[in-house]
Write a structure and sequence with these properties.
Elements: E1 4-6, E2 26-35, H1 39-47, E3 57-59, E4 64-66, H2 94-97, H3 100-103, E5 104-111, H4 119-135, E6 144-146, H5 147-151, H6 157-161, H7 164-173, H8 181-192, E7 198-203, E8 210-213, E9 216-219, H9 223-237, E10 242-246, H10 252-260
Parallel strand pairs: 1-4, 2-5, 2-6, 3-5, 7-10
Antiparallel strand pairs: 3-4, 7-8, 8-9
Helix pairs in contact: 4-7
């Protein structure tokens, strides 16, 4: 059963131009900037075709309403908010998105009467975007942007003020657990010494390769274990596993100590 409710406004040439999108590059997150306005309120407003502005999906505490088909153009993220030094409009993702109205799905999060994106609306947006991704699996984690990232508009304002909310949203959409302070500290240390405290080595003139992780050295039973270790190091540090050759009688930890300083 679909979480998203489909209640399309009529094609009117203004808020719903009825133009088909030919490709989907990503998804743009917005907020309505309208305190207390519900998804249904926005459906009814855009049905009146007052201005050349719209979005495909509106989410509030009660659910999500799709007012324009996802495969059609909505006018949501091609506005000019600022200019570059050479006088051209500021579109930092133009090379990736082209005109975002034509290349991206648009999602608007509604606000409560205090002007906040509630946790319920946040979680409902997660549910809705997960459903959208089943239709457009090319929308990966790095293909979800804020309106701010596309044109520089302060939207969604709470996510511009606190960029970590976008990361929290992506984590929830892609089922990635949030990083704890302890994990963040550990990751920082790992990255600092990546390729030094996690590497492979062999003694000069010998074929046996050993692995080093922190202050432990160990051998590999077979080539697959060596391959798995190198993959783990790359996944952990974001860098290829380094390999060193030691002269006979020289311990790797003596060399590492000198390298780390």
């Amino acid at each position: 059963m679909s979480f998203i409710k489909y209640d399309y406004i009529a094609v009117n040439g203004v808020t719903r131009p009825g133009i088909k999108r030919t490709s989907t590059v990503g998804l743009i997150m917005h907020y309505t900037a309208n305190k207390g306005g519900t998804a249904q309120n926005h459906h009814d407003y855009f049905a009146r075709a007052i201005d050349y502005a719209s979005a495909q999906l509106f989410v509030d505490d009660d659910g999500a309403i799709c007012i324009i088909p996802f495969d059609e153009v909505s006018y949501h993220a091609n506005d000019i908010q600022r200019y570059n030094a050479d006088g051209t409009p500021y579109y930092p993702l133009r090379g990736t998105l082209g005109n975002a109205n034509y290349s991206c799905v648009s999602v608007e999060m509604c606000l409560d009467y205090n002007g906040n994106i509630t946790e319920k609306t946040f979680q409902n947006s997660v549910k809705a975007v997960k459903e959208i991704i089943t239709m457009y699996p090319q929308i990966t984690r790095d293909r979800i942007w804020r309106h701010y990232d596309v044109t520089g508009k302060n939207c969604p304002a709470p996510w511009v003020a606190n960029p970590s909310e976008l990361d929290r949203f992506k984590n929830a959409v892609f089922n990635k657990a949030a990083t704890t302070n302890k994990e963040a500290t550990t990751t920082k240390k790992i990255n600092q010494f990546g390729g030094i405290s996690m590497f492979t080595y062999q003694e000069e003139g010998k074929a046996t390769i050993y692995g080093v992780w922190g202050n432990k050295s160990f051998g590999f039973k077979n080539p697959q274990e060596l391959k798995d270790f190198r993959n783990i190091v790359k996944d952990t540090t974001g860098r290829a596993c380094k390999h060193y050759t030691w002269k006979k009688g020289q311990t790797p930890f003596d060399v590492v100590k000198k390298m780390v300083g």
